[in-house]
Amino acid sequence: MKKVEQLYEGKAKKVYSTEDPNVVIVSYKDDATAFDGLKKGTITGKGAINNQMTNFLMQQLEKAGVPTHFVQELSERETAVKKVSIVPLEVIVRNISAGHFASNYGVKEGIVFDEPTIEFSYKNDDLHDPLINSYHAVALKLATWDEIALIKKYAFQVNDFLKKTLLECGVTLVDFKLEFGKTADGTIVLADEISPDTCRFWDAKTGEKLDKDRFRRDLGNVEGAYQEMARRLMGK
Ligand code: UDP
Predict the structure, then answer these.
(1) Domains and CATH numbers, the chain
(2) Is 77 in the pocket of ligand 1 (CB under 6 A)?
(3) Which of 5, 50, 108, 156 is 20 to 30 A distant from 19 in Cα terms?
(4) What is the value of pTM for the model shown?
(5) Averaged pLDDT of the chain
């Protein structure tokens, strides 16, 4: 499969068309941004790790009954995926308080919830991705009720799978963000990525952060944390 033309360049990925109208190629970059694009940097090797980790997890999720956009890994940092239109919702699942949950609601990080929570942000750069509820999402025609129900079901399935898989690697899954897409025939599939850029991972014993918070909060050893997650999960 070959790249034909660049369709899009985002903060962390480029997307190319292919000869197949239903398939695009994503190329993961080492660029990192945080705080609505205000903080910019490079995390060397991140693109390759995020690409391979996403593919590793999506292939297992597919087997566990969550349809994904994954088609074929092409190289260290490039993957062929189904062409989808992204549902403009960031779907965030949390098991433990952290990040915006802690700051928005005035609680400390690290409170373990009795059951996972789910929330949506409206993916809109001009509006800075505001929190949105399902009624608003339906009113804005971002998704239908049926699509939202399916997205919630898949998101909790992903949480169950990821929590268990990571715990076996000595990692606590704190929270994560998913994006879903719609294929040409209207099927909802898991899209985007599952990586230390989009999840919070804490070492199960020490609580050490093994994710993008090391970059956001200038904690040092950012590359080391991504490599450690790749080693624990995929043995490489
Ligand atoms: N997240 C993400 N992209 C975003 C916002 C959040 O991947 O644009 C992820 C983030 O890495 C974390 C989870 O979603 O694992 C919850 O993030 P939160 O809402 O606490 O916001 P943050 O503090 O990360 O900005």
Answers:
(1) 5-82 (3.30.200.20), 85-221 (3.30.470.20)
(2) no
(3) 50
(4) 0.97
(5) 98
